[in-house]
Design goal:
The protein contains 16 helices and eleven strands. The chain is of the alpha+beta class. Strands 1, 2, 3, 4, 5, 6, 7, 8, 9, 10 and 11 form an eleven-stranded mixed sheet that branches. Strand 10 (318-324) and strand 11 (330-339) form a beta hairpin. 47% of the residues are buried.
């Protein structure tokens, strides 16, 4: 039997085309062995050594069919921590050490110094003000008259649609269906709470069931695409910026005057940089991010904790707002309208990602469900605030280039 063959015999079968690389998992019944065969095949074919890629703690039998296909090993990215960071949220309360996986020198140091400034000033207050994962199928009908009729029908039968959608998961709870009409096209933007999961797959399955119910009972409507790009997933967009997707998070802090004085700056210095760079500069660029580097921190946390990294695109949209207070203190806040995070599902169960979430005390399902994901979002918001405060302050001190020269070129010891 094929599964009893040695590596060399399997390699020969792959090389002559008797076995395809993507078939190995099923044929062998062992994804770890299949991974080794694929990697060895590539090493031989291209005369390279993939020793680093092959060095991993991942059991591929637990991830193939769930997280990835056609495995050859794993990518390894350095992980550091920033903290302690004092967070005061509805669920996150205390000091946290935030894991950041990145290859950008100076990033962890930047968030770490921002965390120090915030913690010394009393901490960051974080609040999740909106929570809901969306999926927006696009349907077509014969005319705009039928489009309006479809929207009215959906509104009148919301409870029935809700029951059908929620039958697919004990955690999916339908909150609303928001319609958008263009000609004879109708987008129905479904919004759900999804417990501690980020929830995109959960919502997709629920919406699929709901749309089948709609088209069966409103036969003039035809589904064009289950995802019609008004969701909006993995694209910078105005809809999520305004309406939110995932968690809408605000994190704020007041940096004390004496803390700023130690850094050789005033609140007015920092506010000027934020206004002219983050607000005016972003407006000139017509950017969806009125901030200095939200994506830096969010990408590093996403990689460290097993989030869907492509969703950094919309998760890092947002606004930094800063004010000089009358007593010389600095008010600073970040608003993340579309932070898409979860503590169960996706890549959160991978070994190192699970440990990073455990470090934050948010791994798995919360009690009650949904509270761990909110707690995690509160911490992420505070970490983004720390990175943002420090970078804007560094620009006010004109030390950006020096920091990257020291920490990004191997010169710091």
């Amino acid at each position: 039997m094929v599964e009893e063959l040695g590596i060399e015999d399997l390699l020969r079968k792959v090389e002559v085309g008797e076995l395809k690389l993507h078939e190995l998992d099923k044929v062998l019944g062992d994804s770890n062995k299949a991974t080794e065969v694929r990697r060895r095949f590539l090493e031989r074919r291209f005369n390279v050594k993939l020793t680093g890629i092959g060095s991993t703690v991942i059991d591929f039998n637990t991830v193939v069919g769930r997280n990835i296909e056609n495995t050859i090993g794993a990518a390894q990215i350095p992980m550091g921590i920033a903290g302690p960071l004092l967070v005061r949220g509805d669920y996150a309360n205390g000091l946290y050490y935030v894991p950041l996986a990145t290859t950008e020198g100076a990033l962890v140091a930047s968030v770490n110094r921002g965390a120090k400034l915030i913690t010394e000033s009393g901490g960051a207050r974080s609040k999740v003000i909106n929570d809901g994962m969306t999926r927006a199928p696009v349907l077509t009908v014969p005319s705009v008259v039928d489009a309006v009729e479809l929207v009215n029908w959906v509104n009148e039968h919301f409870q029935e649609i809700k029951s059908v959608a929620e039958s697919t998961s004990r955690h999916a709870k339908l909150l609303s269906i928001q319609p958008f009409i263009v000609g004879n096209n109708v987008w129905l933007r479904f919004k759900f709470t999804t417990g501690d999961a980020m929830g995109m797959n959960m919502v997709t399955i629920a919406v699929d069931r709901a749309v089948k119910y709609i088209t069966t009972n409103f036969p003039k409507a035809r589904l064009v695409a289950l995802s019609g790009n008004m969701c909006v997933d993995k694209k910078a967009n105005a809809v999520n910026f305004l309406l939110g997707r995932g968690k809408t998070v605000v994190s704020e802090a007041v940096i004390k005057r004496e803390v700023l004085e130690k850094m050789g700056v005033t609140a007015e210095d920092v506010v000027e940089v934020n206004n002219r760079k983050n607000l005016l500069g972003s407006a000139l660029a017509h950017a969806y991010g009125f901030n200095a580097h939200f994506a830096n921190i969010i990408a590093a946390i996403f990689i460290a904790t097993g989030q869907d990294v492509a969703q950094v695109v919309e998760s890092s949209m947002g606004i930094s707002w800063m004010e000089a207070l009358e007593n010389g203190d600095l008010y600073a806040s970040v608003t993340l309208p579309s932070l898409e995070v979860g503590t169960v599902g996706g890549g959160t169960g991978l070994p190192t990602q699970r440990e990073a979430l455990q470090l934050l005390g948010v791994y798995g399902s919360g009690n009650p469900p949904g509270t761990n994901a909110i707690k995690f979002a509160e911490i992420v918001g505070a970490a983004v605030l720390a990175g943002e405060v420090n970078l804007v302050l560094a620009l006010a001190r004109d030390e950006l280039a020096r920091a990257h020269e020291m920490l990004g070129r191997g010169r710091a010891r």
